[in-house]
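Intended use. Records like the one below are meant for learning the mapping from a protein sequence to its folded structure. Do not use them to infer anything beyond what is encoded.
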Amino acid sequence: KDKKSRFGGIFCYSTDMELETKKGSDFGRVAVALQSMIDDFKSDSATVVALWGDLGAGKTTLTQYLAKSYGIEDEVVSPTFVIMKIYPLADRSHEDDDPVNNGRSERFIHMDAYRFENPEEAAGIRLHEYIADPKNIMLIEWPELLGDGLPDRRIDVKIAHNGEGRRITIAEHV
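Structure written out for the chain above:
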């Protein structure tokens, strides 16, 4: 962990963040912190965010808040049965104060691997092609079910129940 600082009433770190929520709306602040990390993430391929956590931990809730922070107006629901949903991102690269991932991202992809019985099933949806495309921001629920299909360079978000709230750890994985 690097330097500790305050962000929106929560402690965070320049490369790793540890956040706590008390209520669902706190995920909005977490999404702002995560968006900042995504926008600064350097990669030659998609920016992949692996969402780790038990059933009901808040993976989809965080994705909904993050989608909203990127200007997605569509209703974002868990893609458990369709596996993947792709949302176009508005071109905001011309806005100096609000570039999306430094102006390079065009798609926000929400994937749920919960129904995969083995990692080989990811090949059927061409996962490697989505991961290879630097114009994608990919959020993947249940990443542990992808095995070696999960890229080494990514952002890991671990969400754990903490009483009535959640403890959230965000870290770059390289």
